[in-house]
Amino acid sequence: MGTISRHLGELAEVPGDRDTAIGLPREALPRNQVIGARPDLALTSLDLARLLRDGDRAGRAEAAILATNSVREPHRVRGQAGCLRMILRAR
After folding, report:
1. For the CA atoms of 75, 77, 82, 85, what is the dihedral angle to 10 degrees?
2. CB burial string 47-81: b at 16+ within 10 A, e below
3. Other CB atoms closer than 10 Å to residue 37's CB: what's the count?
């Protein structure tokens, strides 16, 4: 189970609060790493990549790295095939 920040970021998207929608998953990434929430780490990376891909050049570059990492993460943990399928569908 990962941090709630990823989900709060998704909620911030609804009214169009882009800064918060990006900031919350950015906060969640290192927290999920520390607590070992690897599926949430992958999904948070994917969410952040989705938000950044329509931004400036630096944002698009970061989005590409995050998307790549989101696909690699489930391969590092046994039994995460379902997480990988979810990530690939979302891309």
Report:
1. -20
2. bbbbbbeeeeeebeebbeebbeebeebbeeeeebe
3. 18
Burial class (CB in 10 A: 0-12, 13-18, 19+), 41: buried
Alpha helices in 1-91 (DSSP H): 5-13, 18-35, 38-52, 57-75, 81-90
**0.85 exceeded by pTM:** no
| Spans in the chain with pLDDT lower than 50 | none
Q: Determine the Cα–Cα distance for residues 31 and 25; give it in Å rounded to an integer.
A: 10
Give the separation between CA 48 and CA 10, rounded to whole angstroms: 10
